[in-house]
Design brief:
Layout lengths: L14 E3 L9 E6 L8 H15 L8 E4 L3 H12 L4 E5 L5 H9 L3 E4 L7 H16 L13 H4 L2 H11 L4 E5 L4 H10 L7 E7 L34 E5 L1 H15 L5 H16 L5 E6 L13 H6 L12 E2 L10 E4 L9 E5 L6 H11 L3 E6 L8 H4 L2 E4 L5 H11 L5 E5 L6 H11 L6 H8 L1 H11 L6 E4 L5 H8 L3 E5 L9 E3 L2 H12 L14 E5 L5 E9 L2 E12 L7 E6 L5 H18 L4 E10 L2 E8 L7 H9 L3 H9 L13 E7 L5 E7 L1 H5 L4 E6 L6 E2 L10 E7 L2 H14 L1 E6 L4
Parallel strand pairs: 2-9, 3-4, 4-5, 6-7, 6-9, 7-8, 10-11, 12-13, 12-15, 13-14
Antiparallel strand pairs: 1-2, 8-11, 16-19, 17-18, 17-19, 20-21, 20-23, 21-22, 22-25, 23-24, 25-29, 26-28, 26-30, 27-29
Length: about 750
C-alpha cells in the first residue's frame, strides 16, 4: 500500500481473530491499534493537529507543546514533525528510555521536569508547559484530555471495524482519557444501536466510582480524575484488574496469541477471555489493543520489576467477581454499569430565534429533563431569556474555533446531551458542533446548502425538482443576463438572509440593478456574519404560498402538515397570517408533500424538523426554499393547538437522539395574525389587547413593540409588532376570530420618517 506522507499511513490497522471461544461458537477479534507507526494515539495526534490547522488555531510552522510520557507524546512528535512544526514534549523522570530515545530521534525538544510540585509530577509538567506557552507565542497545546478531537479521531477506527465485520455485539476497550473507547463506541452506535460497550479500568482508578490509589503501576489506563472526554453514559459494563492481573495477562497475550503488547493491551485481552467464556454462541466480540510492548521491556516484561514491587504477592482472580455498587475492587471484578443518576445533561443551543419559538424551545428543553444552554455572542438580543432559566455561555458564535473553545472549557463530554438551534443563521454552526461532539445532527454540508439559496437552487436543478427559473448575480454586470433568463417581473433577494429581509419584486431591469447593488454592498448580516455577496434573481410566481412542515428521522421524511400563508402586497413579501393545517384537497397535499420530500433528499437533509416554502402554481408545486429547522412565526404553536403535537419538543428529542412522536392527538385548525404598522413613524400606544383576547377562539394576544418604538410599513419579518393566535374546529372560524380580534386592536402611530 502506497502513502504520500507518513501521516497517511496512520490507521487501517489489522483486525485479527483470536483463539478464544471457538469451541463455543463465539468469535473474538482484536483490533491491533498497536500496529500504527507508534501506537493508537497516532490517530488522536493526527486528528487534533489537522483540525487545529484547518481552524487556524495552529498556524503553519508554529510550535506544538504537549505534556506526556507515553504514546500521545510519540503521536504528537510523529504528526507535528511531519507537518513541519517544532515539537516540545514536557515529561518527567518516569519516562521510559525507549520513548525518550524515540522522541529525541524524531527531532523533538524534550523538557524533563526535575521535581514534583503541589500535585506531584502532573502539576510540575503542567507548570512547565504553561511557561513554554508564554515563551513561545502562537504555540498550540493539543489538550488530549479535554479536546473532543481526541474521541473524534476514532470515527475512522469505527469505520474500519464496520467495513471488516459489518456486525458485532460487544466492544471492549481500555479507559484512560476516555477518547478511544467513547469515540469508537459513539460512532459505532450510529449503525449498531444495540452495541454492548465494556470499559477496562485498573484497580485504584477513580474513573468509575472506585477509590483512587495513586500507587498503581499500570500505565495507559485509569485515572485519578475524571477526564472531560470520558462519557460514562456510553459504557454498559466495567471490568477492573489489579497490577498483577494486568501484567500477567500481558504475558499471556504474547504467549497465547503471539501479540507483544503493553499492559493496556494485556488488560483488554484478559477481559476478552472472560467475556468469551460467558458469551452466547454466535456472539461477536471486538477488543481494541492500543499499545506495543517495547516500552514495557523494563517493567511488565522484567522479572526484577516484578520482584521490586512484590507483584506475585498481590492476590489474583481467575474469573471476574460480580461487584456490588459501592464495593471496592481488589482483584478482577466486573459491574453492570450505569452513569451516575445525578449527572446533569445539557442541551446546547447555538444562538436562537429572537422571538416566539426561540424562548419556547429553551423551556421545552427543561421539560425533557435537560439543562438548556444558550451559546450566544449577545444575550441582550433575546427578550424573555432570563425567564427561561437557561444557562448562558457567552462566546463568539460566529467563530467555529471560539465556539469549540467555549464548549470545551465549560463542559465535560458526558454532560452534553445534544446540540440544536432555532435560528436560520446558525444551522450550519450547530451541525458542525454536533458533528465535532459526535451527537445527532444533520450533515453540515446539507445545512450549508440550505442556508445558501443559490447552492440550493443548483442542487434542486440537478435533482429535477420543480422551482422558479433563476440566475445568480455576483457583480452588477451579471444583471442583464439574469433578467433575460428569469423574465420580468422578477424577485431579487440575498442568497443567504432570512425573514424576507431585502426581498423585492422588481418590474424592470433598472430596479433589478439598483436592488442587486444594494444587496451586494452588504458585507455582514444582522448577526454580524459575513454575507455571501450573492444575489438570487428568480422568476416571479404569482400563486398561493404554503409552507410544508416535515420531520426527518431514521431515513425517511414524514409530513406533519401544510401551512397556508398570506403575505403583504408587493413589492415586499412579509407573511402576515398563517393557517394550519391548510384546507387542501388530499391529492394536492400529496403532490406538495412529494415535491418537498424530493427537495429534502436533494439537499441532503436527514434529521429533524424542516420548514419548506412552496408556491402552488397551475403547473403544480414549485419549491422556493428549505429552512432546515422547526418553523418560526409561531407555526409550532399552531401545530400544537390544532393537533396536540409539540413540534418544538420533538425537534429537541431528535437532537437528543430520541425517537420522535409524531402522531396527532386532536383535529382542528389554528392561525396567527401578525400586527403590522400601516405607516412609518413611532408607536405611541397599542390599545384593545384585552378586548381582542376576549374574542371567542382567541388563544393569545401579544404586543411585542413598546411605546416609543420606531416602526415602518412592513418590509421584513422584523417589522412585526405582535400577534394574535386563534383556534377553531373549522378554518372559517379561525379566520373570523383573527379578523374580529385584529379589528379591536389599535396601533397608534405618530407618522414620520423612521429613524
Amino acid at each position: 500500500m502506497l502513502f504520500d506522507t507518513v501521516t497517511d499511513a496512520i490507521g487501517a490497522t489489522p483486525l485479527v481473530r483470536l483463539r478464544l471461544g471457538e469451541a463455543r461458537g463465539v468469535e473474538v477479534y482484536a483490533k491491533l491499534e498497536l500496529q500504527n507507526l507508534f501506537a493508537m494515539k497516532d490517530r488522536v495526534a493526527r486528528n487534533i493537529l489537522l483540525e487545529a490547522r484547518r481552524l487556524g488555531t495552529l498556524r503553519p510552522g508554529a510550535p506544538v507543546i504537549e505534556s506526556s510520557s507515553g504514546t500521545m507524546a510519540l503521536g504528537v512528535a510523529l504528526v507535528g514533525r511531519s507537518l513541519g512544526h517544532e515539537v516540545h514534549i514536557v515529561t518527567d523522570p518516569r519516562i521510559d528510555p525507549v520513548t525518550l530515545a524515540k522522541l529525541r530521534a524524531l527531532g523533538c525538544r524534550v523538557h524533563v521536569v526535575e521535581a514534583m510540585t503541589s500535585h506531584g509530577w502532573q502539576s510540575a509538567r503542567l507548570e512547565r508547559l504553561a511557561e513554554l506557552l508564554e515563551e513561545l507565542p502562537g504555540a498550540f497545546w493539543p489538550q488530549q484530555y479535554t479536546n473532543p478531537d481526541n474521541p473524534g479521531a476514532y470515527r475512522t477506527l469505527a469505520g474500519e471495524l464496520l467495513a471488516d465485520l459489518a456486525r458485532f455485539d460487544t466492544l471492549v476497550g481500555a479507559v484512560g482519557s476516555g477518547g478511544s473507547l467513547c469515540g469508537t463506541a459513539r460512532a459505532l452506535r450510529e449503525t449498531l444501536p444495540g452495541l454492548h460497550v465494556v470499559g477496562v479500568d485498573c484497580v485504584g482508578s477513580a474513573l468509575f466510582g472506585q477509590p483512587d490509589v495513586p500507587q498503581r503501576l499500570q500505565s495507559g489506563l485509569g485515572n485519578s480524575l475524571l477526564p472531560k472526554n470520558l462519557d460514562r453514559t456510553l459504557v454498559d459494563e466495567v471490568h477492573w484488574l489489579n497490577d498483577h492481573e494486568a501484567f500477567a495477562a500481558t504475558w499471556d497475550l504474547a504467549r497465547e496469541q503471539q501479540i507483544f503488547g503493553g499492559n493496556t493491551s494485556g488488560s483488554v485481552y484478559r477481559v476478552l477471555t472472560g467475556l468469551a467464556e460467558r458469551a452466547e454462541p454466535g456472539t461477536r466480540i471486538v477488543g481494541i489493543l492500543p499499545d506495543r510492548g517495547d516500552r514495557y521491556a523494563d517493567t511488565v516484561y522484567n522479572d526484577a520489576h516484578w520482584e521490586a514491587h512484590a507483584l506475585r504477592e498481590v492476590p489474583t482472580a481467575t474469573a471476574p467477581a460480580a461487584l456490588d455498587p459501592g464495593e471496592t475492587a481488589r482483584t478482577w471484578s466486573r459491574l453492570a454499569y450505569s452513569a451516575p443518576a445525578d449527572l446533569r445533561r445539557h442541551l446546547l443551543f447555538v444562538e436562537s430565534n429572537t422571538t416566539g419559538t426561540g424562548m419556547l424551545a429553551l423551556e421545552r428543553a427543561r421539560e425533557l429533563g435537560t439543562v438548556p444552554v444558550l451559546l450566544t455572542g449577545d444575550p441582550g438580543r433575546y427578550r424573555g431569556l432570563e425567564a427561561t432559566g437557561a444557562e448562558v455561555v457567552r462566546c463568539d458564535t460566529n467563530s467555529a474555533a471560539a465556539l469549540r473553545a467555549a464548549v470545551q472549557e465549560r463542559f465535560r463530554r458526558e454532560e452534553i446531551a445534544g446540540v440544536t438551534t432555532t435560528s436560520d443563521f446558525y444551522v450550519p454552526s450547530a451541525a458542525l458542533l454536533a458533528q465535532w461532539l459526535g451527537l445527532p445532527g444533520n450533515p453540515p454540508g446539507a445545512m450549508a446548502v440550505c442556508r445558501d439559496k443559490s447552492a440550493l437552487r443548483e442542487a434542486l436543478h440537478a435533482a429535477g425538482v420543480r422551482q422558479p427559473r433563476y440566475a445568480l448575480v455576483r457583480a452588477p454586470g451579471d444583471v442583464a443576463a439574469a433578467v433575460a433568463r428569469t423574465g420580468l417581473p422578477c424577485v431579487v433577494k440575498p442568497a443567504d438572509d432570512s425573514g424576507s429581509t431585502n426581498v423585492l419584486l422588481c418590474t424592470d431591469e433598472a430596479q433589478v440593478r439598483a436592488h442587486a447593488q444594494r444587496v451586494l454592498a452588504i458585507g455582514t448580516n444582522v448577526r454580524g456574519m459575513p454575507t455571501a455577496r450573492t444575489v438570487l434573481v428568480e422568476e416571479y410566481l404569482d400563486a398561493p404560498e404554503y409552507s410544508v412542515e416535515m420531520f426527518s428521522w431514521d431515513g425517511r421524511a414524514e409530513c406533519v402538515g401544510i401551512t397556508a400563508k398570506s403575505v403583504t402586497a408587493t413589492p415586499h413579501f412579509v407573511e402576515h397570517r398563517h393557517l394550519f393545517p391548510a384546507p387542501l384537497p388530499p391529492a394536492t397535499a400529496q403532490r406538495i408533500t412529494e415535491t418537498v420530500t424530493a427537495a429534502l433528499d436533494a439537499a441532503g437533509v436527514r434529521l429533524g424538523a424542516t420548514h419548506t416554502e412552496v408556491k402552488l402554481t397551475a403547473d403544480g408545486p414549485a419549491l422556493i426554499e428549505i429552512n432546515p429547522r422547526a418553523a418560526g412565526g409561531m407555526i409550532p404553536e399552531l401545530i400544537r393547538l390544532a393537533t396536540g403535537l409539540d413540534l418544538l419538543q420533538e425537534q429537541l428529542r431528535a437532537a437528543l437522539g430520541r425517537a420522535p412522536r409524531l402522531k396527532a392527538e386532536a383535529a382542528g385548525h389554528a392561525g396567527i395574525q401578525f400586527l403590522l404598522a400601516d405607516a412609518d413613524g413611532t408607536l405611541a400606544a397599542a390599545r384593545g389587547a384585552e378586548a381582542a383576547a376576549a374574542v371567542d377562539g382567541v388563544q393569545s394576544v401579544l404586543v411585542t413593540a413598546a411605546p416609543g418604538t420606531a416602526v415602518r410599513r412592513p418590509r421584513s419579518a422584523s417589522d412585526r409588532l405582535g400577534h394574535v393566535i386563534a383556534r377553531h374546529p373549522l378554518p372559517e372560524g379561525v379566520h373570523a376570530a383573527l379578523d374580529e380580534a385584529r379589528a379591536l386592536l389599535h396601533l397608534d402611530i405618530t407618522a414620520g420618517p423612521r429613524p
